[in-house]
Amino acid sequence: MSDRTIPADGIGMHLYTMRDVLAEDYPGTLKRLAGIGYRTIGVSGRFDHSAEEIRSFADDAGLAIVLEHVGYTRMADDWDSALAGVKTLGGKWVVVPSIPSELHSVEGFRTAAAAFTEAGKAARDAGVKLLFHNHGRDFDSVDGQILFDILLEVDPELLGFEFDLYWAVEGGQDPAKYFQEHPGRFPALHVKDMAADGSWEDVGAGKLDFAAMFAHASEGGVEQWLVEHDKPTDAWHSAERSYRGLTELRF
């Protein structure tokens, strides 16, 4: 371990964490996040605002939007619009947050890989990069094949990953190993901690060894560390505590 820290402009908030307060006051929420110290955000749900409006809210707050989550089915039926929206927001990544449950098989993940290949080409042509966000069951082993690893076979120019560290560990994996074995594939992270009982915890207050993971973050190509908590009791307390946990981390 060294005295390395996460660069300030790499610390962001994935807005799913803040969904309750966003629904009440989107622009005010962004300004308060900036006041805590966050520099970037990942968009997850627009709450009846247009992409233009959200971009203006972020600009007014001094926050950079780095990505937006869009559903898997939009790759087939609304991809041009999805890409245009991410461009309007100013994001560099378009993120598919999950693969439909009916595709959770070796053949299904191969189908998804083919879909990501084509969608990734269109994203590249539009000037953004396609990423996939994992959950725990994406690391299920079926017939000796880890499903997630099928996606790593897609051309790295066409598909990267927003690596959710909690779900990777919950799925039995070591994120540091993925960073080392698949360099440059993980430009964005979801950083959320795991409580002793396996539930979600604020960053730095749980049991995940982020220092060990982040020691290899540069190999993984990490540019953004986005805080996430799926069910915070108090979103603002969680946002402040997790920001502190990330800024105080040494690795």
Task: Give a written overview of the molecule.
It is a single chain. This protein has 251 residues and is an alpha/beta fold. The protein has a single domain, classed as TIM Barrel. The chain is 41% helix and 18% strand. It has helices at residues 19-24, 26-36, 51-61, 74-77, 79-89, 106-126, 147-151, 165-170, 175-181, 210-214, 217-220, 235-247; strands spanning 11-14, 40-43, 64-69, 93-96, 129-133, 141-142, 145-146, 160-164, 188-191, 193-194, 200-201, 224-227. The strands form three sheets. Strands 1-2-3-4-5-8-9-12 form an eight-stranded parallel beta barrel, surrounded by four helices. The protein has a two-stranded antiparallel sheet with strand order 6-7. The longest helix has 21 residues, at 106-126. The radius of gyration is 17 Å and the shape is globular. The model has no long low-confidence stretch (mean pLDDT 98). This is Sugar phosphate isomerase/epimerase. Residues 31-227 form the Xylose isomerase-like TIM barrel domain.
Annotate the secondary structure layout:
Elements: E1 11-14, H1 19-24, H2 26-36, E2 40-43, H3 51-61, E3 64-69, H4 74-77, H5 79-89, E4 93-96, H6 106-126, E5 129-133, E6 141-142, E7 145-146, H7 147-151, E8 160-164, H8 165-170, H9 175-181, E9 188-191, E10 193-194, E11 200-201, H10 210-214, H11 217-220, E12 224-227, H12 235-247
Parallel strand pairs: 1-2, 1-12, 2-3, 3-4, 4-5, 5-8, 8-9, 9-12
Antiparallel strand pairs: 6-7, 10-11
Helix pairs in contact: 2-3, 3-5, 5-6
